[in-house]
Amino acid sequence: MYLLKKIPVQIAINGDFEANDGDGSGWAFFANGGTAEVDNTINNGGSYSAKIATNGASNPGIKQERIGAGVVAAGDVIQVQFDHIGAVGGDGGVFNVLLFGEGAEGVSFTENFDPRPVLAESWSTFTATFTIPDGTDVSQGVSLLIETVCGGAEGCTVSANVDNVSITVNPE
Question: Cβ contacts of residue 33 below 8 Å, gap of 6+?
Fold first, then answer.
C-alpha cells in the first residue's frame, strides 16, 4: 500500500505587500470606520506592511478572497502565518483572524482562530492551522480576513501592522 503525500502549496497573493510598489495587489481593504491601508513606515522586511487600526466603534480589516480554487479540497490542512506588531488599548479590543471556505452556494465554513494573535511592541509571528472538514465545498477556494475590532467601549483602540502573510495548503 502506498500513501500519497500531499505537496505543500502557497496560495497567498502578495503576502509581503511589496508588489507594484506597495499598491496592495491581491488584498481587499475595508476601513469600516477605522483604517485599513498599506503602510510604508513600519515593516518586517522590505518596505511595506498592512496597517489595520480602529477608530472608536469600528472593525477595519484586510482580506484575500476566494484564493486557491482548484487547489484546496476537503481534508486539506490550511496553515495561516504572518508577522504582526501593534497594541490594544482600553476595553473590548480584539485582533481577529478568520478563514472561510468558499463553495458554489457561498460560505461553507468559518474558522475564527483562537487563540488569537497577541499584539505587542515588537514583531512576532502568528501561526495556526485548520483542517477543512470532509464533505465541505471549497470549489471557490478559501478567504482570509484579518481585522481589528472595537465595540462601543469608550477608549477602545486596536492598531496592528501585518507583514509576510502566507497561506499554505498541506504544510509539512
Answer: 54, 55, 56, 57, 58, 59, 60
Residue whose grid cell is 509581503: 16
CA distances from 57 to 84, 92, 146 (A): 22, 10, 17
Q: What is the DSSP string of 120-165?
A: -SS-EEEEEEEEPPTT---TT-EEEEEEEEB-S-TT-EEEEEEEEE
What integer best gives the mean pLDDT of the chain? 95
**Locus of grid cell 482580506:** 63
The fraction of the chain above a pLDDT of 70, given in percent, is 97
**pTM, 2 dp:** 0.95
Domains of the chain with CATH codes: 9-169 (2.60.120.260)
